[in-house]
Design goal:
Elements lengths: L6 E2 L18 H7 L5 E5 L7 E6 L3 E6 L3 H12 L10 E3 L4 H7 L5 E11 L15 E2 L21 H7 L2 E6 L2 E11 L3 E8 L8 H15 L3 E3 L1 E3 L3 H9 L2 E12 L2
Parallel strand pairs: 4-5, 10-11
Antiparallel strand pairs: 1-2, 2-3, 3-4, 5-13, 6-12, 6-13, 7-8, 8-9, 9-10
């Protein structure tokens, strides 16, 4: 590729003017800029940057600004060979950008997928949960019981960071996680909700209970609940709609797949 184009940005103030460009997975870059969660920002020029890569510790990333082919090719190199951190991956969240897609798809190992975009339209009628286990706040006492893919370790670098800046709810049955819902991404204004139900407890409505509890707490805190999922994830789509979200569109995402 020749000369390295990207440099790591340390003064995040240089990127605030571009935040209005982001619609896809907006809460994750905001969480970095506002100091809730960790991540890195790479630019084409340290003094006068015009192209930016915002890379959250969970692996989600966004390209902003006036990028060129060389900048995108360096992003592809990071997708192919991610350094330590960022969950060992770079998942590029994007708008409907034909130019960006054209550059990315020149590499046959880059695959394009779609994610649903939801808006929160209001609560559905969720029946009160009167039997055990009951939803309880995620705390230092139960955090280590959370198991599965979409649990706080998905997007938070440490237990301490989550307990300080995030929040969530879980259901525990005799020392085993039944289900949990938590702030996968968080900013001043938004909370992206992640939900996991242990396999042996699925089909009983527990995911809906913790998701509804999480939505209610997010609203109580004055934040906007956010939900996105892959279009192939029908269970997540149905769960989102059951607690008050409506599909308003899709956006592409790109991954390097061997």
């Amino acid at each position: 590729m020749g000369k390295q184009i990207m440099e790591k940005l340390t003064d995040f103030r240089k990127i605030h003017r571009l935040m209005e460009q982001i619609n896809a997975e907006k809460v994750y870059p905001l969480s970095i800029l506002e100091g809730y969660q960790r991540g890195e920002i790479f630019v084409d020029d340290m003094e006068a940057p015009i192209a930016f890569l915002i890379w959250h510790s969970c692996g989600f990333a966004n390209i902003l600004g006036d990028y060129d082919q060389g900048f995108v090719e360096e992003v592809i190199t990071l997708m192919q060979h991610p350094p330590e951190g960022h969950a060992g991956r770079l998942i590029l969240q994007a708008e409907q950008d034909d130019r960006l897609q054209g550059i990315l798809m020149q590499n046959p190992m880059i695959k394009r997928h779609e994610r649903y975009v939801f808006t929160f339209a209001g609560h559905r009628n969720v029946l009160p949960h009167r039997s055990d286990p009951r939803p309880e706040p995620i705390s230092s006492d139960n955090y280590d019981l959370l198991r599965g893919r979409i649990v706080p370790t998905f997007s938070w670098q440490s237990k301490e960071a989550f307990l300080q800046n995030g929040f969530g709810y879980c259901m525990i049955d005799t020392g085993h996680m039944v289900a949990c819902a938590f702030s996968s991404g968080i900013s001043h204004a938004y909370v992206d909700i992640g939900v996991e139900t242990s396999e042996e407890y699925r089909g009983n409505g527990y995911g809906r209970i913790v998701a509804e509890t999480m939505v209610s707490e997010t609203l109580r805190r004055g934040k906007v609940p956010v939900w996105e999922c892959d279009v192939r994830n029908e269970a997540s789509m149905r769960l989102a709609r059951s607690v008050g979200f409506e599909i308003v569109g899709t956006h592409p995402w790109y991954a390097y797949e061997k």
